[in-house]
Amino acid sequence: xxxxxxxxxxxxxxxxxxxxxxxxxxxxxxxxxxxxxxxxxxxxxxxxxxxxxxxxxxxxxxxxxxxxxxxxxxxxxxxxxxxxxxxxxxxxxxxxxxxxxxxxxxxxxxxxxxxxxxxxxxxxxxxxxxxxxxxxxxxxxxxxxxxxxxxxxxxxxxxxxxxxxxxxxxxxxxxxxxxxxxxxxxxxxxxxxxxxxxxxxxxxxxxxxxxxxxxxxxxxxxxxxxxxxxxxxxxxxxxxxxxxxxxxxxxxxxxxxxxxxxxxxxxxxxxxxxxxxxxxxxxxxxxxxxxxxxxxxxxxxxxxxxxxxxxxxxxxxxxxxxxxxxxxxxxxxxxxxxxxxxxxxxxxxxxxxxxxxxxxxxxxxxxxxxxxxxxxxxxxxxxxxxxxxxxxxxxxxxxxxxxxxxxxxxxxxxxxxxxxxxxxxxxxxxxxxxxxxxxxxxxxxxxxxxxxxxxxxxxxxxxxxxxxxxxxxxxxxxxxxxxxxxxxxxxxxxxxxxxxxxxxxxxxxxxxxxxxxxxxxxxxxxxxxxxxxxxxxxxxxxxxxxxxxxxxxxxxxxxxxxxxxxxxxxxxxxxxxxxxxxxxxxxxxxxxxxxxxxxxxxxxxxxxxxxxxxxxxxxxxxxxxxxxxxxxxxxxxxxxxxxxxxxxxxxxxxxxxxxxxxxxxxxxxxxxxxxxxxxxxxxxxxxxxxxxxxxxxxxxxxxxxxxxxxxxxxxxxxxxxxxx
Length: 724
Ligand code: GLC
What we know:
By secondary structure, the protein is of the alpha/beta class. It contains 21 helices and 25 strands. The strands form six sheets. An eight-stranded parallel β-sheet has the order 9-6-5-4-3-2-1-10. A six-stranded mixed β-sheet has the order 11-16-15-14-12-13. Helix 2 (15-21) crosses helix 11 (301-311), helix 5 (110-126) packs antiparallel against helix 14 and helix 10 crosses helix 11. The radius of gyration is 26 Å and the shape is globular. The model has no long low-confidence stretch (mean pLDDT 94). Bound molecules: alpha-D-glucopyranose (GLC). The site of alpha-D-glucopyranose has 9 residues, from loops. Residues 39-40, 60, 89, 133, 186, 265-266, 474 line the site of alpha-D-glucopyranose.
């Protein structure tokens, strides 16, 4: 449809029809059948029969047959024949479930994010969806918050690259992989920094932290072409995002030039009342419209109050038309006016999982992080007899939250037993999943003698532990991040049996592993890897594939340290070797650093870096693998500035590169120097201050090679702007 045709369509619409285009509800609320996966606070009132079919988009309904039926019924009713948009949370896959985004970010492979999103788009489009509320570009530094599972970690560069790649995967079809989903990047802004890690809490961040750390991920997603933005629940500078004019009008639409559709989060317009910035639905509607929120999700104040706001002059007809036109343009860009069913025709729903299973496995293989590996624990040889116990040994609920209604993936037992002779894998029954996941004290103790007998023939024992996948995601903040008492006791029991203890951790967040780390000879952080979970873990544990993941989020020693992340400012009294043991930035009762730092992850190889140098505006370092196994390592480049107008982190990730090294191989790794590396954002500008910098390279953020670099204005001006 041409712009003129859209304008003509708009001109012929009634005010109520326009307000309907700005309203999104689940099918039930429109009197339609639907299998909405309700998220957030349920509630809201069903529309009166006279209003059914008035809304412009549907939340959380998918399935080609169902979508087709609802769309056909809607088009029959709607005198303007404006198709519905179908939007849902396709966060890490639709039918084929991929690793949770936090796991995916540990691959340090933006291409893996792109491929995962492409699979999700093909399957979601075939099921009639048009928009996915993904990627979540919220930077996260507090594992008490359950939604860290949906994020890409604590570093702005990694978050930006993963978010941009996901947008490209959703929106750019490829030969043989037709079907697109418009990407709605969320939650704008800084929902990942709730006070206390408490869900829906408000956010207290400095403007500098917002600009340098929390905003870049959204900006990168928009630079990659994201079609929509979702405003967050939380306040930013004490104003809820859904009513935040400086954030939405001035920054997002003004400075960043975003002209697409802005949607509220679930009920967030209505929640302006609870936030005490609106005393009624009409004020809430007015403030959200003033801020530029186009679509109101799961409340109907626009529909109920819009006409009165127009009559009172509190809403201008022009502002209303601008919002509706953005929605109509999105429908037009998706081709819905020409064919509302095009996406479903591109590929059928049938057989999708079989087509994508191998790709899901390839991606899942890149995400587990080997945190510890001593005493020859891993890999397990197929000649060895190995025990498997723990609540996740047989568990198929390993998809993670937001799995689009899917519930099961390949279990660890299935992934191992399909690769080992029966006599090589011994199951140790340690009690049911529930008993070992709950903290209740009325559960019988571990049957130690029974377990001892079962595992008598095994020196190595795999113990699969973690948190229930339902305890992660939205509404899942926790103050205690330890394994349950029984799981910790199980690990201690196995250690007391003098076994080689190999812990596999299933979780959607960094857990507090300090109580068990010494009893484990090896620890593999498995996250929730999706449909192919057990197969990926089986391959890695048996050495058929090597672990290559790196932590995108620090693991605290204790919750008491939070927030603990690698790029914290140095303070005026950083702990120094030989310095004061009291009057320094430290705790009395705990080391300051994390248990496992950002960027940490072992391989089965033995890799070191050497010969770090800067020459011809290229940073070069050599990776050597002196081990007996091949290694896929992520070389990380960090920069520090010795003196600036503002305090600067002791190190900041500026680039990373994944390289493979065979046993005995040396690999030269090069990073082009860029202006972005030697400058920082401040008050809307990229600031460069000539002077001394430290260039650092490492295989994690704590063990780094360093070299100094003087950067003059002339040298800076000669650099390329950003990494290609
Ligand atoms: C939720 C979430 C948001 C999701 C939306 C629709 O409450 O905050 O991430 O996209 O509702 O399900």
